[in-house]
Write a structure and sequence with these properties.
This protein has about 210 residues and is mainly α. It is built from 8 helices and 2 strands.
Length: about 210
């Protein structure tokens, strides 16, 4: 790398480089992992996208390792939490509490009908968010531009492997209750089924959202 012309001394620098196949495998795993962890809105997103073109050079690898360490620390300390997701989860919890209060206020049919509609609205919003969080995002609209209904969202999540068939069947049962309540078919479900729906939707949100 250079020398001293007066003394005739020559200096050398030795660089140990990882093989290209190993580097390419490491870089691919880094990109795959970061895509799952760092949201599209994060300030780190530009650095994540730069990982795709990372070169097999000592300084670039050092940057990559340092960036991964930083992301790991942020993840451990809770700095990568999706704030919008937290707000949405809080809102869903509030709506479910309102649905429970409707059940508790009275035994009249007029109380558990809106309970089923409210729980169904929370479920639909949550399923829509789950579809949009997939990589790549799952479409939540039909080809004609109309939003997918509950069953369409359930089918999409089942097709993408986000939920299994048992969960899908339970979600479809809740969708039927919500649809019956929304269309005035009140004799197709009971107050107890509406209560079970609220509890079930809460459990689903705790597991998946």
């Amino acid at each position: 790398m250079g020398g001293n012309y007066l003394t005739g001394e020559t200096r050398y620098r030795e660089t140990r480089e990882v093989s290209w196949p190993h580097f390419a495998e490491w870089r691919t795993k880094c990109v795959t992992t970061l895509e799952q962890i760092v949201s599209k809105q994060s300030v780190h997103r530009q650095a994540v996208e730069a990982f795709v073109g990372l070169r097999c050079e000592p300084s670039k690898v050092q940057f990559g390792v340092a960036f991964l360490t930083s992301i790991r620390n942020d993840l451990r300390d809770g700095f990568l939490t999706d704030l919008s997701g937290e707000i949405e989860a809080e809102m869903a919890a509030d709506y479910l509490v309102q649905a429970e209060r409707l059940l508790a206020d009275s035994g009249e049919q007029a109380r558990y009908i809106p309970t089923a509609i409210l729980a169904g609205a929370v479920l639909e919003k949550s399923l829509r968010s789950l579809c949009q969080q997939l990589i790549p995002p799952e479409a939540v609209e039909q080809t004609n531009g109309k939003p997918l209904a509950l069953n369409g969202l359930i089918d999409a999540l089942k097709r993408r492997g986000s939920i299994n068939e048992v969960t899908a069947q339970q979600l479809r049962a809740w969708a039927r209750i919500r649809n019956s309540a929304a269309h005035g078919q009140f004799d197709e479900f009971t107050k107890e089924q509406a209560r079970a729906m609220v509890d079930g939707v809460r459990g689903f949100l705790m597991q998946y959202v």
